[in-house]
Amino acid sequence: MGKREQLYEGKAKKVFATGSADYVIVSYKDDATAFDGTKKGRISGKGVVNNRMSNFLMSLLEKAGIPTHFVEELSEREALVRRVSIVPLEVIVRNISAGSFAKRFGVEEGIVFDRPTIEFSYKNDELHDPMINEYHALALGLATEDEIETIKSMAFKINDILKEYFLGLGIKLVDFKLEFGRTSDGEIVLADEISPDTCRFWDAKTNEKLDKDRFRRDLGGVEEAYSEMMRRVFGK
Ligand code: TMP
Ligand code: ASP
Asked: Which ligand places an atom closest to the C-alpha of 128?
């Protein structure tokens, strides 16, 4: 392949153009940030784990009827995906209290909810991704009412599928963040990634954290946690 035009560089991924306006290439980096980019580091091998796991999970979701941006794995770190315009909402689903939920509402981590919760953050670095509700999103013109309904029902369906899948691997899916995109014909599809960067995974027996919280909280064993998740999913 010739020299590719880089369209975008984010904190954890780069996006390159292809010969087609409908597709882009995502390249996963080992760079890790937390707390709005104020904590910076590197997690060796993370790009490979996140690319492979995300591609695998998106394929699993496609089979279950969820439309996603994923097209094809190109290499260890790269995937071909449909070009979308990202809906500027971070969609967070929670099954168990942790992280900002525990902090905001003053409860301990580990409370298992009777029903999953959903919340939105406005994807805006300058404003530090504030939490917003559906009415705010509508008022700001971030998405239409129909799009928000589609996003919510897809997010809960994704949760049902992934929760069951990970439980089969001895993993509790505590919470996760999704992003959605609009294709050129206006279809809402799951985009971004699903990985230990964007999910909280706890071992079902020991509650050991097997995700990016090990980096965020300086718990050590960061690379090992990503490798362990790779082993659970791919068996090696
Ligand atoms: P939180 O408890 O910090 O709000 O995080 C909820 C979930 O969202 C957790 O699985 C980590 C993920 N997440 C991201 O993917 N990106 C982010 O920028 C943040 C803050 C959280
Ligand atoms: N990656 C995000 C940031 O740097 C936060 C996180 O995942 O904790 O803002």
From this structure: 2
Over residues 126-174, the pLDDT tens digits come to 999 999 999 999 999 999 999 999 999 999 999 999 999 999 999 999 9
Pocket test residue of 9, 28, 29, 35 for ligand 2, highest count of atoms within 8 A of CB: 35
**Residues 31, 11: Cα–Cα separation, whole Å:** 7
Q: What residues are in contact with ligand 1 under a 6 Å CB criterion?
A: 92, 98-101, 175-177, 198-200
Whole-Å CA distances, 210 to 54, 56, 60, 108, 112 = 16, 18, 21, 19, 18
Distance 131 CA to ligand 1 centre (A): 12
Domain 85-221 sits in CATH at 3.30.470.20
CA distance 86 to 226: 26
Does residue 1 have a pLDDT over 60?
Answer: no
Say if CB 28 and CB 88 are below 8 A apart: no
Q: Is 216 near ligand 2, meaning CB less than 6 Å away?
A: yes
Residue 90: strand pairing partners = 121
The radius of gyration computed from the CA coordinates of the chain, to the nearest angstrom, equals 17
Confidence of residue 236 (pLDDT cuts 50, 70, 90): confident
Q: For 6-82, which CATH superfamily applies?
A: Phosphorylase Kinase; domain 1 (3.30.200.20)
